[in-house]
Amino acid sequence: MKVSRWALAIGVLVGCGLLQVQGRHAMLIKGYDVGAREAAMVASQNDVRRLAMEVGYLESPRRLAEAAREQQLTLVAQTALPAPPVSAAAGTQVAFADTEGRP
Amino acid sequence: MRASNRSTPLRTSNDRLVGLVVLFVTLFGVLWVRCLWLQVVEAERLTAIAAAQHTATQRLRAQRGGIYDRHGRQLAQSLPAPSVYANARQVLDKAGLAERLAPIVKKDVAFVERRLRADRGFIWIARQVDGEVASAVSRFRRQGIGLVEEPKRFYPQQAVASHVLGFVNIDQDGLEGLELAYNRILQGEPGWQSTIRDAKGDLIFGPWTSETPPVDGYELILTMDSVVQNAAEEALAWGVEKYHALGGSVIVMEPETGALLAMANMPSFDANAPSAVPPAERRNRAVTDLLEPGSVFKVVTASALLEEQLITLDEKIFCEEGEFRTAGRHTLHDHRPHGTLSFQDVIRLSSNIGTAKAATRLPPDVFYHYIRAFGFGRRTGVDMPGEVSGMISPPARWSKLSPFIIPIGQEIAVTPLQLAVMTAVIANGGKRVSPYVVDRIVAPHGELVRAFPPATSERIVTSHTARAVETMLLHVVESGTGQLARVQGLMVAGKTGTAQKIEPNGRYSHSRYVASFVGYGPVPDPHVVIVVCVDEPRPVYFGGVVAAPIFKRLVEQLASYWELDRPAPQPLMARLS
Fold first, then answer.
1. What whole-number distance in Å separates Cα of residue B456 and Cα of residue B258?
2. With 90 as the cut, is the pLDDT of residue B464 above it?
């Protein structure tokens, strides 16, 4: 009877110890899990930022204007306005050289 | 003898027992002393070593806030980029590794070898490299080379608004532009994290983890519109190239609020690689460079004269047939001789003599008051670094010549942004606005942190005076020196200017000029004020020829962008009536 009580006490102690070890182990597993999820979250946030920047680049007015020019589209804010003919501009220069109020 | 024989083994046995006890006691004593030594004397040092081995404390970087235009288009953003470091103490074949690593990280072999020879556990080899370089470098991991992620600033629209945005250094500190002016707001506050790590170095989170989370930087929403900015940059680049100029500036501003829609400068640079151009090309000329305004300053002179009721639009002024002796031996010239002109025509044809003669009616202190009231000689207060205040001497320091040449824009130094403020006074009916570029600051998740409403504007001239000056400026574009700024179907007002630059010997140059045009449109409900300054155009240098077409080109693009109605052209007087 005495031996059984001792065995019971030891069994309880061992059981408690095992539970504590199991709890500790589970906590470590969760700890790793939290770390992995946090890393995944940071990676996702960076992906979102990277994609937003990609969108920023793709909808850049300069890029769109250049693409419109390459494809000879004329509907994009007239970014492909032709320059005035050289001869006309030169003629105007002469005309305005007289009227300009240069100090 | 027998007794002696019997007692000897017993004594020996006792002795052995005693010896064993002594031995064990000594051993335990030594162990005990050692334990005591480790637990008490060495405890602090050993605890620190253990903590360093299984505790990881790291700085949590705050995400630097982004910068966006008024429509939410992204202008600046930070992203992680891999950086290459070395644990130089682990590298065995330093010369061999340097030879293999240098071409991959695009560095000099001698530079890499010098770094590897440093007796340091951590030393940078190449920072913020691209993904291809990182994957190529990763095969050197076992040879003491490692990769770590660092934030890098990206400007997705590249050169667009680069002078306004500025740029950051490799450690994400703002060095120029808005990145510098709003550095503290953009960079946020770093945090700290302490947790345990396993033998492989992987972090384990749990109740033992302590953390102060980082506070990410706020984001800036600008008043600028990247479409308008791009249009301004394209128009300026077109003009600078066409007239072989050194550079130039274009400012587009809302006349009612002072909100800046665009601020373009040439030469330009890609904010992603600012070190590729010399520092002089990275300055925001629109706020840092001074120029003599020349004839565009006649807007101030005319406004002061009309506001003080010292002249009317129809009053006749004799323009001395192109040559007028002022104070001392100085003679004022018009480029083309004029006889008698109405004051309106004096401005329309930009007569220096007519303007100077009319301005003599203004007492110097009154004129000086108007110059200051229009915003000259002091900073506009725009939220960008490096703004200069310009130069205008008080009347007490004026020479006898000053009352004749200041009214035509000489002996005064201004910034292009001050010219925009001046033009806005006429465009909005007489009020001086304060230009600004940041509309609001928002938290990373979009909550408003601070808004910047337009500053209270100060009335400079009556709306009646502003309308009278506007009439003159409309005629400048319709039939005066600014005809090349005419836009089909839109009424625009403006004034040309051609200013001689100052030579190193202090004299006015006869070969180097600044061509300018200030204007706004569409009248009578102007959306924008535009200032165009072109530095040293060649061979033609007149504001009406060089700067006015840039204005026109830009207004045409903006009219399309904003889908402004552009009815069939009519004579100006019909439209004014």
1. 10
2. yes
